[in-house]
Structure formats: C-alpha cells, structure tokens
C-alpha cells in the first residue's frame, strides 16, 4: 500500500528537478539590452522638458544616447515624410502628427499647452490685452505651425486683427525676438516663459479655450524601435509627466 506513495514522491522530485533545469522566460527588451542612438524629433516648445527627459531616460538606459532634433512641428513632419531617420515624433498638435499617420500608427496624447502674450522685461510697449497687439510691433508663429494656428484662433475669437512684423517657423524664434527687444510682443506657449527673467507674460482672455494637445509616437520603420517604444513609455510614465508638469505643461 505504500509503494504508490513512494513512486508519487519520485515523480514529484523528478518534476521539480526538471522545472529547475528549465530556463526562465526572459523579457523582450530589458534596460541592459537597449542601446544605440535614439533620434527624437520634437516640437521646439518641448526643448527644455525633453532635454530633461532625455537625461533621465539615458540614466535609466545607459546604453542609449538620445539625439533630439527640435523645430516647428510642421517642419519635422515634412522631414519625416521625406524619410528622415527619426525614431520618435512628438508634435505640438494633432494636425501635424496626422500628416505622418502612415509612419505613426499609434500616437498618444501626453501633454497640453495654452498661449500667453510675451513681452520684453518691463513691458515697454505697455501691452495689456490682445487688442494691443494690433498697435505694437508683434511677432507671431506662421499659420502653418501649431503655435501659429493657435494664435490665429485666439485672435479671431477675440475679434483682433494683427499684421505681424514677422511670421516665424517655431515658437522659439518668436520668443527670441521678444526677449531681444526686436518686438514689443509675441504669442507663445505658457511653458516658454516659465523661469525666464528676460520676458514677462500676460494671460489673455480666452486663452483657456484654445488648447494644443501634444501627441507622441514611436515611428514604424524606426532605426531603433525598442528604444523608441521605451522612450514613449517613459514620457507617459509618472516620472515623465512630472517633468512636463514642472515645465508648465498641462495634463493630457
């Protein structure tokens, strides 16, 4: 009566030994397995926060070197459409992400932004409202880029017509001219003036009604697809969202 019990014990031991000998399943791509250069094409308004995100990502994945390219979203979308070797695209609006829909099948919204009036320190033009932009030297983003499209909507909603002294291809160029005193005012994102003492901001009426939502996507055909997916995940993570919030971005 006891032999079956002894046999069962033998089988149990054999099964245990076999299980121990079997290799454990490995994750598809661990931090140690990620490496190479990661080309991140990002809207100019993301530069400060994405520089910080890139540093944190590289610390978490020492084998990866993040190589960011910052410019107007429209310019970047055109470059990607023409075959630029980008791994990740982060746009300042959904319209320009849609231009590369074939390469970006799964975009995720990760942040939001609104516009403010930027003036040089001391506000020499005495700007107080959107209406004042029609009487002072004003620079705006070009209508085809996200900050320009948002600016046109904001001004139209307010019934204000502005003839800009120049139309820039990205928001950084607008802010640079304002900070240098080459213009009395410009419309930029709220995040662009955070922590700066060479410009002041005025929050115009109606700003909360014009919100740009920022999508990000790992691109199909990316030269470094595993690192691209990991970078997008990091931007969407608690750490990535904290960095964006500290820079003044709104939650998506």
From TrEMBL:
Domain of life: Bacteria
Pfam families the record matches: SBP_bac_11
GO MF annotation terms: metal ion binding; molybdate ion binding
BP GO annotations: molybdate ion transport
Extent of the signal sequence: 1-28
Residues annotated as transmembrane: none
Keyword annotations: Metal-binding, Molybdenum, Signal
NCBIfam families referenced in this protein's UniProt entry, alphabetically: modA (TIGR01256)
Similarity comment: Belongs to the bacterial solute-binding protein ModA family.
Protein's UniProt name: ABC-type molybdate transport system, periplasmic component
Protein's organism: Microbacterium testaceum (strain StLB037)
């Amino acid at each position: 009566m006891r032999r079956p019990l002894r046999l069962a014990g033998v089988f149990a031991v054999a099964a245990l030994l076999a299980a121990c000998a079997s290799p454990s399943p490995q994750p598809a791509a661990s931090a140690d397995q990620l490496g190479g250069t990661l080309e991140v094409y990002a809207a100019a308004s993301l530069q400060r926060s994405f520089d910080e995100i890139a540093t944190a990502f590289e610390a978490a994945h020492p084998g990866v070197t993040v190589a960011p390219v910052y410019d107007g979203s429209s310019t970047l979308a055109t470059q990607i459409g023409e075959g630029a070797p980008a791994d990740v695209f982060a746009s300042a609006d959904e319209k320009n992400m849609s231009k590369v829909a074939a390469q970006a099948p799964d975009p995720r919204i990760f942040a939001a932004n609104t516009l403010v009036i930027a003036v040089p320190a001391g506000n020499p033009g005495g700007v107080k409202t959107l209406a004042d932009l029609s009487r002072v030297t004003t620079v705006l983003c070009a209508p085809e880029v996200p900050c320009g499209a948002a600016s046109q909507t904001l001004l139209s909603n307010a019934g204000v017509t502005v003839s800009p002294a120049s139309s820039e291809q990205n928001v950084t160029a607008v802010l640079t001219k304002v900070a240098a005193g080459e213009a009395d005012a410009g419309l930029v994102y709220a995040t662009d003036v955070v922590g700066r003492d060479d410009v002041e901001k005025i929050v115009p009426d109606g700003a909360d009604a014009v919100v740009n939502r920022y999508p990000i996507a790992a691109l199909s055909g990316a030269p470094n697809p595993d690192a691209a997916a990991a970078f997008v995940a990091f931007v969407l993570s608690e750490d990535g969202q904290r960095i964006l919030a500290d820079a003044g971005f709104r939650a998506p």
